[in-house]
Amino acid sequence: MTILSYGQQWIKTYCDTGGYGGVFAVETYDKGFLIGGSANTGTKNSILYKTDVNGKVLWQRIIGTSGSNTNIQAICTAPDGGCAIVGEISTSNSLNEAFLLKLNACGEMEWSKRFHVSASIISNHICLMKDGGFVFNLGENANDLVYSGWVYRCDEFGNFVWTIHLSYLPKNLFVDDSDNVIVTGYHFSQFDFYHGQDNTLIPYNSVKILKLDSIGKTLLSGDQTDYQNLGAQTIPAPGGNYLTCGSDAGNSNNYDLHLFLWDYKGSLIRNIALIDPSYTNSPVDMIIGSDSNYIVLAMHIGNNSLNYNMKIMKISNDTIESSSAPFNFGFNVYPSTLRATSDGKYIISGSVKNGNSDIGIYAAKINSSLQLDTFYSAKYSYDYLCNNIQDTGTILLDNAPEKNLAINEQKEMNQTFSIYPDPARDFISLSYSGLSDSRVQFSLYNILGVNVISSGYSADKNGNLNQQIGLQGIPSGCYIVELVQGNKRLLKKVMIEK
To answer: pTM for this one?
Structure first.
């Protein structure tokens, strides 16, 4: 463990010999931090540290299950001083589960959820919504070639409000000031360059962005289909635009950092590349900095593919600054997250590496000049929301309620909601049961998210709705039918062919 001396640069490592890798670090209500990591060998569980402003551990919690590998993957703080954590449970029979966990400010479990997924969970992020609920994504990897994923919206108690399935990998999330959810991801496919010759399949990636409102309706969708592009994170840019940090893979898997600028409709304005022929720079995270510029955290690899270091850059006016040399904060550290702190600075997390193995959790505090900060000498009061906190403890997820959310719940919902004919021509008939006697709002959206029909209907006394809707003047194409009643929202696709 690092020995503190005030004026010393703010770098901390944890679990030096425990086989843990760093997953996240985020500031808490009392100016301290929650720092988490997961084990890829040995103990097969995850660990969460609550620290003071200088990274000194105040308490810690082991998060796990009996006999399974539990990997925490993302965190966000809650208004009550607690936090919500999402992650993966890998069982011995190769059935994967995701979990959602809410802790209070003292590190005690308030509630937890578990649900089955159809493939390995490879990417995950979670954000707080204005009503105190959460939105998070799960990326699924079926066989290293087939990527897909989900976006989930839940209330403050973990009850799911809506879900959206994506045919590509959702890599990251961002919630803007209007409570809109911006999803960044990429699609993987193989491209037959020579049309039919067996040995000419090459990987092909495309950057995807998606903007959803707080009820899950699509506001914009963008796609950059250039060869081998990967998306990492998207945040709002001036003029109603959006900026995505990403990368492409050149020869020998050398990655060049890219910035993709989109307009408010999701159309690509320009693709800005930072090419360094001597090094690989692959973005990991991006946030809006304290001076309203953008701060990018990237993985920096030298001439040795096992020589990992962090690189942090500032972007001003869509131009990368301070990029002539890497900012190396520690040798062989693989970066994971970048977060702003209340003092206008930043906390970075990562994994200390020995070759390809994780051997410790890494955290560093960076000042507004993008240099290592120093430890604070001022006295702070920590964990004032708690008394007599246990220094250590274990949180078991064995008894968390289980759901097959990605399959069963969606099927149950669809069993009560049907549309026919599909494809439709002159009309569609809606059939839905299980409603209350309040009004039901019907909307029909085209593929661009434009509302082309909107009307209100009432269910009968038994809670059934049967309604025929004319399609005069509606052109051929793919459409989304939306039914909203109270906090219940159902979506279904329908084809119209004239």
So the answer is: 0.75
